[in-house]
Design a protein that fits this description.
Shape: globular
CATH superfamily of the largest domain: 2,3-Dihydroxybiphenyl 1,2-Dioxygenase, domain 1
Protein name: VOC family protein
Strand content: 25-35%
Number of helices: 2
Number of strands: 9
Mean pLDDT: 89
Radius of gyration: 17 Å
CATH topology of the largest domain: 2,3-Dihydroxybiphenyl 1,2-Dioxygenase, domain 1
Organism: Actinomycetospora chibensis
Order of helices and strands: EHEEEEEHEEE
């Protein structure tokens, strides 16, 4: 690649999708935790509608979406970031105080979490780690970016 070549434009994070063991229970959990709204109709799986469907949740303020998938032939068991596939999903927040606000919110909901972890290694950031009903690791993440 030469200095005159550039990659195509990249926008912001749009959505993530996870296969879940109980799509309705997971949808209710994500709606409660993130305050997202369910798209009224389920989405058939792209290019394989007979294999299952997804329930899609959207945050109207940010446009972030979460797809929760049910597969007809899925293999159940808790998510494990040590297996090949998804390690975790991280949601950025604009201030360090927002991480603490999320910790308080999760406490009110009775959801176990790591607490706000501040570190300088390898760069300064703060992360709050918790897990969904299928053990998918989620993070609330703050990193001060220079102007």
């Amino acid at each position: 690649m030469t200095a005159t070549e550039h990659r195509p434009a990249l926008g912001t994070f749009h959505h993530f999708s996870a296969t879940v063991s109980d799509v309705e229970a997971s949808a209710a959990w994500y709606e409660r935790v993130f305050g997202m709204s369910r798209v009224p109709a389920p989405f058939p799986h792209y290019d394989d509608a007979d294999s299952g469907y997804a329930i899609v949740l959207l945050d109207p303020a940010t446009g972030i979406g979460i797809g929760l998938h049910h597969h007809r032939d899925q293999q159940d068991g808790p998510a494990d970031e040590r297996r090949c596939g998804l390690d975790h999903i991280s949601f950025a927040v604009p201030t360090r105080a927002d991480v603490d606000a999320w910790a308080s919110w999760l406490d009110r909901l009775g959801i176990a979490h790591s607490g706000a972890n501040d570190t300088d290694d390898p760069v300064p950031y703060t992360a709050l780690v918790f897990r969904d009903p299928d053990n998918v690791q989620l993070e609330i993440f703050y990193m001060d970016t220079p102007d």
